[in-house]
Design a protein that fits this description.
Layout: H1 6-12, H2 14-25, H3 44-59, E1 63-67, E2 71-77, E3 82-88, E4 106-108, E5 111-113, H4 121-137, E6 144-150, H5 158-166, E7 172-175, E8 178-179, E9 182-186, E10 188-196, H6 198-203, E11 214-221, E12 231-238, H7 243-257, E13 260-266, E14 269-275, H8 290-298, H9 305-317, E15 332-333, E16 337-338, E17 340-349, E18 354-362, H10 368-380, E19 385-392, E20 395-396, H11 402-415, E21 421-424, E22 436-438, E23 441-442, E24 456-458, H12 459-477
Parallel strand pairs: 3-6, 3-7, 7-22, 8-23, 9-21
Antiparallel strand pairs: 1-2, 2-6, 4-5, 5-24, 9-20, 10-18, 10-19, 11-12, 11-17, 12-14, 13-14, 15-16, 17-18
This protein binds zinc ion.
Length: 478
């Protein structure tokens, strides 16, 4: 059998690898609707980046195809089965505070610094060079290899949706767009709107409250379902209690609870502000939800009938209920961990809607149909209904699947490190493949600089990743 020293082969092409990566990073491949056109649905920058990678592959003798500017691919090898390597050429906006220009791709301390360096343009070039190495090696392959380039991974994934409407789904594949060693399982992701209209409230014909201390006029917290909100604001109309008294009660509450916030009087109303701690919605227990914490205070007051129901509903089902316990949907999976629930947005208007926007992430052993039926029944008791805004089913490849075991072996052979496999609560590009995992490029212990200022890839890591991908492509396709 032939043994290739993949790392040595990459080292020989090091200068070319670096300069090609730099050239690619200098294209500002940012979503730009103002230059969108037929064949360039996400604008000229992304179009240019797609052309760049297709040209690289074409020069290497691969068969390339452009799928309407939504995505493209480059193929080589032979056989009925297809190995896919899926990456993306678009980037997120650069933001401020860079110490070297975000599209200059300067080399600083052994790093290439640029927007997209680690996510995902550096790894895209690594995959292309890896494929070129396999192709040039002349080693026999029994499968076809296809590099697939997406163009709007950072926004709506319209690229892969459109691409797979007409193009072949790989037998199996990986995406170099997350972490090493390997991510084989991802939770299901659900964004829900939970709504009680004013009519639905009235339809319950609840008795009106006895001498309320105040009426809740409105409450607002959060803007994104997948973030724990760090701000909340409520407006109260003093009734049984005076404005000063309400303010004092709130201040005393803040004092006792150690929460941060303030109260003020404005036009005869009392405004309450609460501050929390924002974290990603995949792990809501690590943050402090300003919205539900503010409502917890409102629970100490006697409010008008609608607010009373709204507050009790929140207290019972959402206040510090990060795992859906009181809703009866909590579930812990050995492999993938617990169902998590984040209350990302809360909006209440006395004469309008009361709504929550929730991000629920669930493991594969708990079917969506099962938990959503329980959820629906629970919230109906308070005249709430829900609507699914977005739903991605759980994604998992059997840990014994040859895709997983082969990549684990390759990783260990190339790095000398153990290749544990990872289940996550987030979503990687890997889930757009039927049988797909995320495989690199970020090595364990490296800080994740994706989407941040001074994003970079270490040149040593770029080289190492290229060698890993080369062996991976070969082993999967041989
Ligand atoms: Zn990415």
């Amino acid at each position: 059998m032939t043994t290739m020293n993949w790392l040595q082969e990459v080292e020989k092409r090091k200068d070319d690898l670096i300069s090609t990566t730099q050239g690619f990073l200098r294209i500002k491949s940012l979503l730009d609707p103002s230059t969108a056109r037929e064949g360039a649905p996400f604008g000229e920058g992304i179009r240019e980046a797609l052309d760049f990678v297709l040209e690289q592959c074409k020069q290497a003798g691969m068969t390339v195809k452009d799928v309407g500017g939504y995505a493209g691919h480059a193929e080589f090898g032979q056989g009925s089965e297809l190995i896919g390597v899926l990456s993306h050429v678009d980037v997120v906006p650069e933001g401020d505070g860079w110490t070297s220009p975000p599209y200059a791709a300067e080399i600083v301390d052994g790093k290439i610094v640029a927007r997209g360096a680690i996510d995902d343009k550096g790894p895209t070039i690594a995959a292309i060079f890896a494929a070129k190495l396999v192709k040039e090696s002349g080693l026999p392959l029994s499968k076809r290899v296809r590099l697939i380039f997406g163009t709007d991974e950072e926004s709506g994934w319209q690229c892969v949706k459109t691409y797979f409407e007409t193009e072949e789904m790989p037998t199996m594949g990986f995406t170099p767009d997350a972490d090493f060693p390997l991510i084989y399982a991802e939770k299901g992701l659900t964004d829900l709107t939970v709504l009680q209209t004013h009519e639905a409230f009235l339809g319950q014909q609840l008795p009106s409250a006895d001498s309320p201390a105040a009426q809740l006029l409105e409450l607002a917290s959060g803007r994104r379902m997948n973030m724990v909100p760090d701000k909340a604001e409520a407006r109260l109309l003093p009734m049984g209690m005076g404005a000063e008294e309400l303010i004092q009660a709130y201040e005393a509450y803040l004092n006792d609870s150690g929460m941060k916030g303030k109260a003020e009087c404005s036009n005869g109303h009392v405004l309450l502000h609460m501050e929390g701690v924002s974290v990603h919605g995949m792990d809501p227990g690590k943050g402090v939800n300003a919205g539900t914490e503010l409502i917890h205070f409102l629970g100490t007051l006697t409010l008008d009938a609608r607010a009373d129901q709204f507050v009790r509903f929140t207290e019972q089902y959402l206040y510090r209920q990060h795992y859906g316990e009181a809703l009866g949907i909590s579930h812990h999976d050995e492999e993938m961990g617990p169902l998590t629930l984040n209350t990302g947005v809360i909006q209440y208007e006395a004469d309008g809607d009361a709504l929550f926007q929730l991000n629920i992430r669930y493991p594969h052993s708990l079917p969506f149909e099962k938990w959503s039926a329980i959820f629906k029944e629970r919230i109906a008791q308070a005249a709430f209904v829900f609507e699914v805004v977005e739903h991605l089913r759980p994604h998992r490849v059997d840990p014994n699947h040859p895709l997983v075991t082969t990549l684990q072996r390759v990783y260990t052979e190339q790095t000398g490190l153990e290749a544990g496999i990872i289940a996550i609560g987030g979503a990687t590009y890997g889930r757009s493949l039927d049988v797909g995992v995320a495989f690199g490029p970020l090595f364990p212990g490296r800080p994740d600089c994706a989407h941040q200022r001074d994003e970079y890839i270490l040149i040593d890591d770029l080289i190492k990743a290229t060698a890993i991908y080369a062996q991976a492509i070969y082993e999967l396709a041989k």
